[in-house]
C-alpha cells in the first residue's frame, strides 16, 4: 500500500494542514513502519505555474517539442506517474481566500491530461483514469464553513477529483484555526480524531498487507 502526500500550504512548519498530514503519516507508520510514503511539498517547492508555455508544450506532438517543452512535459509526466503509482493519496489543502492555494490549482491543472488522466468515450462522456485510489483531503481554515455555501472549495475538489476518476474521497477539515486558541485546539483535535477513526489499527493492518 503506497501513500502519496501532497502538501500545499505556504506557511511551512506552522501549517495546520501539514499538521493533519503529519498526524495521518504517523498513524500509517505506527501500524506499518515499512509503509511506502512519498511526500511532495508544493508550498515549499512550487511547481511551475500552469501557463501558456505549459499548455503549449502539452499540446505539441512529442517529436516536435523543443527542449523547454520536453522539460515541462516531463515534469507533468512525473506528477501523473507518482499519482498513478499510489494506492492512497493525501491532499493537504489549506483554505486561502475561500478556496485552495494557487499552487494546488496549478498542480491539478498539470494533472488533468486528456488521454492520460481522463478521456472522453466515443459518446462524449468523460471518464476519469485515476481509478482505485483511497483519497483524503485534509484541509484547514481560519473560520468555520464546513457544510455551508461559504465552503466553495469542497464542491470544486469533489468534482475535479471525480472527473479524474477519484471517487473514494474523504474530506477532513480542521476548522476555527483563527478563532482563538481554544477553538483552534478543539478544531485540530476533532480533525485528528476523524483521521484516527478512519484509519484504525485493524484497518491499517489489512491495508498494509
Ligand atoms: C492568505 C490567506 C488567506 C486566508 N483566507 C481564508 C479564508 O478565506 N477563509 C478562512 O476560513 N480562513 C482563511 N485563512 C486562514 C487559513 O485557512 C488558516 O490559517 C489555515 O490554517 C491555513 O492552512 P495552513 O495552516 O495549512 O496553511 C487564510 C489565511 C491566509 C494566510
Question: What brief labels describe this structure?
Answer:
209 residues; 7 helices; two-stranded antiparallel sheet; disordered C terminus; binds flavin mononucleotide; single chain; five-stranded parallel β-sheet; alpha/beta
Please characterize this protein's 3D structure.
- The protein is an alpha/beta fold.
- It is 43% helix and 18% strand.
- The strands form 2 sheets. The protein has a 5-stranded parallel β-sheet, with helices on both faces. A two-stranded antiparallel ribbon has the order 4-5.
- Strand 4 (118-120) and strand 5 form a beta hairpin.
- It is globular, with a radius of gyration of 18 Å.
- Residues 204-209 have low confidence and may be disordered.
- It binds flavin mononucleotide.
- Residues 9, 11, 15-18, 94-98, 140-143, 177-178 line the site of flavin mononucleotide.
- Flavin mononucleotide binds next to helix 1.
Question: How would the blueprint of this fold be written?
Answer:
Layout: E1 2-7, H1 16-31, E2 36-41, H2 52-59, H3 67-85, E3 88-94, H4 102-111, E4 118-120, E5 126-128, E6 134-140, H5 153-163, E7 169-174, H6 181-198, H7 201-208
Parallel strand pairs: 1-2, 1-3, 3-6, 6-7
Antiparallel strand pairs: 4-5
Helix pairs in contact: 1-6, 2-3
This protein binds flavin mononucleotide (FMN).
Flavin mononucleotide binds at residues 9, 11, 15-18, 94-98, 140-143, 177-178.
The share of residues in helices is: 40-55%
Q: Radius of gyration from the CA trace?
A: 18 Å
Portion in strands: 15-25%
Compressed to H and E, one letter per element, the order equals EHEHHEHEEEHEHH
Q: Count of helices?
A: 7
Cross-sheet strand order for the largest sheet: 2-1-3-6-7
Shape category: globular
| Biggest pleated-sheet summary | 5 strands, parallel
**Which segments are poorly predicted (pLDDT under 50) over 5 or more consecutive residues?**
204-209
- Work out the number of β strands: 7
Strand-pairing-aware structural class: alpha/beta
Mean pLDDT: 94
Straight-line distance between termini: 7 Å
Ligand names = flavin mononucleotide
Amino acid at each position: 500500500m503506497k501513500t502519496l502526500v501532497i502538501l500545499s500550504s505556504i506557511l511551512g512548519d506552522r501549517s495546520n494542514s501539514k499538521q493533519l498530514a503529519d498526524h495521518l503519516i504517523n498513524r500509517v507508520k505506527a501500524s506499518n513502519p515499512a509503509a511506502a510514503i512519498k511526500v511532495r511539498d508544493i508550498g515549499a517547492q512550487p511547481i511551475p505555474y500552469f501557463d501558456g508555455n505549459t499548455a503549449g508544450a502539452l499540446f505539441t506532438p512529442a517529436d516536435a517539442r523543443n527542449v523547454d517543452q520536453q522539460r515541462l512535459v516531463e515534469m507533468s509526466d512525473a506528477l501523473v506517474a507518482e499519482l498513478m503509482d499510489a494506492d492512497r493519496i493525501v491532499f493537504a489543502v489549506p483554505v486561502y481566500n475561500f478556496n485552495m492555494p494557487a499552487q494546488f490549482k496549478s498542480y491539478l491543472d498539470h494533472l488533468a491530461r486528456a488521454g492520460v488522466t481522463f478521456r472522453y468515450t466515443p459518446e462524449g462522456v468523460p471518464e476519469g483514469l485515476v481509478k482505485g485510489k483511497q483519497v483524503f483531503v485534509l484541509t484547514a481554515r481560519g473560520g468555520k464553513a464546513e457544510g455551508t455555501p461559504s465552503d466553495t472549495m469542497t464542491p470544486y475538489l469533489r468534482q475535479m477529483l471525480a472527473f479524474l476518476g477519484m471517487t473514494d474521497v474523504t474530506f477532513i477539515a480542521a476548522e476555527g484555526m483563527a478563532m482563538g486558541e481554544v477553538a483552534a485546539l478543539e478544531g485540530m483535535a476533532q480533525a485528528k480524531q476523524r483521521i484516527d477513526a478512519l484509519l484504525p489499527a485493524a484497518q491499517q493492518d489489512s491495508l498494509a498487507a
